[in-house]
Structures are given as structure tokens and as C-alpha cells.
Amino acid sequence: MADTFRALLVEKTDTGQAVRFADWTDADLMAGDVTVAVSHSTVNYKDGLAVTGKAPIIRTFPLVPGIDFAGTVTASDHSNWKPGDQVILNGWGVGETHHGGFAGRARVKGDWLVRLPQGMSQAQAMAIGTAGYTAMLCVLALEDQGVKPGDGEVLVTGAAGGVGSIAIAVLSKLGYTVVASTGRPEEEAYLKGLGATRIVDRNEFSGPVKALAKMRWAGAVDAVGSTTLANVLSQINYGGAVAACGLAQGADLPASVMPFILRSVKLIGCDSVTCPMPRRVQAWARLATDLDRNKLAAMTHHIRLADVPKAAEEILAGKVRGRLVVDLA
Predict the structure, then answer these.
(1) Per the structure, how many domains does the chain have?
(2) Mean pLDDT across the stretch 253-257?
């Protein structure tokens, strides 16, 4: 009898989509030149949308969702990988058009994989996950634009979420003065424990957008989009920058060109899905050195594969703090 593993499947129905669990073998996997025994995955905001069907993330049915995973190569026809190699995957349409991380095994293209950094466990890699990797891309973007620790306060929106939590931890370790924007005042102690110097209510960024508001921030990491991002842009210091990576509030941007043409503000988009491999490797290398592992542990909760559907609902409802690791081994 073929070796089986558990998989979470999303199927198309007459009224939308449904989730079920199945026992699979390697024969059920999609084409690829590397097979990985998945030890851990995560529940990111995008996974919440995919599993619940609240947005059309999944394009092929039936599909195993899960936009990232960590594990060990069991078979490879790719020159870069051999059995026993420890690897990470983020993006590339996995969990959208290709079976993803919510299963005990995955078969993917070897060109999509990143080697697990030395000294980092697979569980830690997925505590970081796509959310943390995206946060690091945002930090790199701010650095590229010349935003330095001594320039003033850096704002992080959606601060209690996965991207926000890791952005705060990394920025504070690098010496930045970090301000956390959140709609959950009860998370103040948690956010300050990650390195935020103070907390601001997210409602400060939900009102009518001024073309130019009082300058407050040297830079910002934004995972919210919409009116929040527009208000943040109007408050960035001359020559500052915003790294944008999410749309939790919406995909619209009701902003003015004034911050760009009168204050030389830069808006930098950070894409995690098809980000070029050299930048991916750079981001993971920096996460290995610039993220406090104790802070990572403090923001991480472990769940089982069976818990994923409930977790997907909770992350969309804003009830998840920090990072959720799915234990598959």
C-alpha cells in the first residue's frame, strides 16, 4: 500500500467552495521536479481568504491551499536539490493554482525553493512564514530608500498581525524607533514587548484624507492599504518612504499626488509572490540575523492541520495575534 499523508482540500461547489480532509499519496500531487516532506506551514491573511473563499485566491479546484511551507526534500530531479536538503517555499502561485502547504507532502518546481538558513529550524521558518518574509522585504525597501534609524519614527500599520509583528521586531532590533498602529488596544503590552515604543489607534488613519497633513513619520510599513495608506502617505516626512504590501482594509488608494511631488515621498510596493530569487535569499539571510528568536517565539502559536479552517475565519476577523504555525510532521 502506498504511503499516505493528510491533505486539506478546497473544492468548488454550486454555492461557492467547501473544505474537506483527505488521505493522499504522492500520485495525487501536481507536476514538479522536487518532492518535499512538509513539516510546517502557516496561516497567513491570504490563506484565510483562500480557505474561506472570501476572495478568489484559489484559481484551480480542487486545490490544497497554503502559500508557504518548510520541509525536507525526499526526491529531486533538479540540479540544486537532493534528498535530505531542508527548504522553504513562499509564493509562486502555490496555494492558488498549485497544491500548497496544507498537506504532508508537496511537489513543486525546484526553482521556487530557498535553502533553509543555517541555524534556523523549519518550525522557526514557518513562524516567520510569508508574513515575516514580506515584512523583511518591506524593511529592505525602506533601507534601499535611505530611511535610517536616526531619521525619526517609523510607523507600522496592522501592527498586531503577522507582517506587522515581525516588522516591529526587526525594525526595533535594527535601532529604529517604531510606532505601532492597531485597532486592538489590549495588545499594547504585546506590541511593546516586540519593540514598539508607543501605540497609536488605527482610527487616526481612517478619516478624510488631506492632500498634505502634518509630517510625522520618517517611513512606514503598511499592510492595510486604502484610506489608511493614503493618510499615512500624507504624513510622511520630506524624502521619506512607505513600503506597502497588503490590502486588509481595501485595494483602493484615495490619495493625492501632493506627498510625491511636494515632499519627495516614495511609495514602494513589496511583492512576495514572484519576488526574484536573489532578493528572496537576501531577505531570508537577513531574517536569520536580524530577527530576535525570543520575540519570534513570543508571537507564535502552533496549531494542527485540523484547526486551519477555524484559524482562517479568525485571521480574517482580526482575532489572530502574531503568527500561526501549522504542525504537519
Answers:
(1) 2
(2) 97
